[in-house]
Amino acid sequence: MLVSYPDNDEIDQDLAKYLYEQCAILIIEGLPVNSEFGIDLSTFKTGQQFMGVKMIPPGIHYFYVSAIGNDGKQYGPRIGFYHNFKSKEIHVKRWSTADEDFDESFQPSEDYLSRYSDNLNDLDRFLGAYRFSTYKTYSSLTVKITVDILEDLVPANLKISSAPYLVRDPDKDSGERPATNKRRALRTEPDPTAESLLPDLQPASGTSIRFTKIPEKHNQLSKEMDPKLVTQFYLDSTMRLEYVFKTDNARQRLLAEFQFSFVTLIMGHVYSCFEQWRKILILICSADSAIGKYHQFFIDFTRILGCQLEYIPEDLFIDITDTDNLVRHHLDIFFQNCHNIQEHDDALKFETDHLRTLLEQKYGWQFRLEPEDELPVVAGGSGVG
């Protein structure tokens, strides 16, 4: 479907009719009133008649629900999905009030879906309109994410939750109550701490996002290398970056995963996505020797990071950098590394200058373009009398 989408939410009647008929529709059955619903970068509070969203442009979108609890007061975790919407598709999910979760057993048949498609005119008033004012920004934040990469990333059960689905680890949790242990009953050991009394929990099978494993500094790579290269390995992450690049389409995948982690963190409130976003940021920013070798990759990374920092809520980014100085530190390293080669690279210079200016103007940061040990030294003197 070739159409120029509006960049605001003021849509004339003819265009609205066309978009309603040609774009996709998302329906969520059984969602409690006053729940929180979000799609891409927009959030809604559900009313009495809310059933979903209309006029969703074809492509990959993220939607989530934070349902009001059975007590009518507390909101549950954000639970959502990525879905590749097709033109004219009607995608239906069902909420289980009893489980306070999506009903995984619900699989609507073609006949079931046709009941909705045959009654589009009656359905219209129950659907909120997709907010096109956010679509351009969302598209720029997800431009590298393809369907194939997305399928590799999302959990096996397709569902992404801000609260991990945890179960007891059968290999570590014997189920034995510490208070009944003979040795403790005989007081031959100190009383257990509160932490030691907790069961050993792990994410339930099929519920974790399948992130790329980022090699740590203290890993097998450094143990097997020539001792002469160890220092370089710890200062420059190029070897670890190239280890990630070994798989097919790895550069595209890493950038897509960087975008996926950011959007899912911002909209889904998934903490593991922040951890992965930070790991990828640090890995790329400290890969000094790789900049000249993977020229376009670093230009794309700088553009992506610039889009993210333009969008991210200021209070959230300040909170991230205040509690984690590694982000600020490695951005400093990145600008220094780029400065060393960008005299011969106009495209990279343009992107890094834009990113650095954004950070300086928005957050008041100042960056050194030369390492401290390369700054000129001013020698003191007694002067000439």
From TrEMBL:
- What InterPro entries has UniProt attached to this entry? AAR2 (IPR007946), AAR2_C (IPR033648), AAR2_C_sf (IPR038514), Aar2_N (IPR033647), AAR2_N_sf (IPR038516)
Instruction: Extract the ranges annotated as region (Disordered).
Output: 167-204
The chain positions of domain AAR2 N-terminal read 24-155
Pfam families with a match to the protein in the record: AAR2, AAR2_1st
Q: Which one GO biological process term can you cite for this protein?
A: spliceosomal tri-snRNP complex assembly
Which CDD domains does this chain map to? Aar2_C (cd13778), Aar2_N (cd13777)
Q: Which domain of life is it from?
A: Eukaryota
Residue limits of the AAR2 C-terminal domain?
Answer: 211-368
Q: Which family does it belong to?
A: Belongs to the AAR2 family.
Tell me the protein's name: Protein AAR2 homolog
Organism equals Aceria tosichella
Cite the source lineage: Eukaryota, Metazoa, Ecdysozoa, Arthropoda, Chelicerata
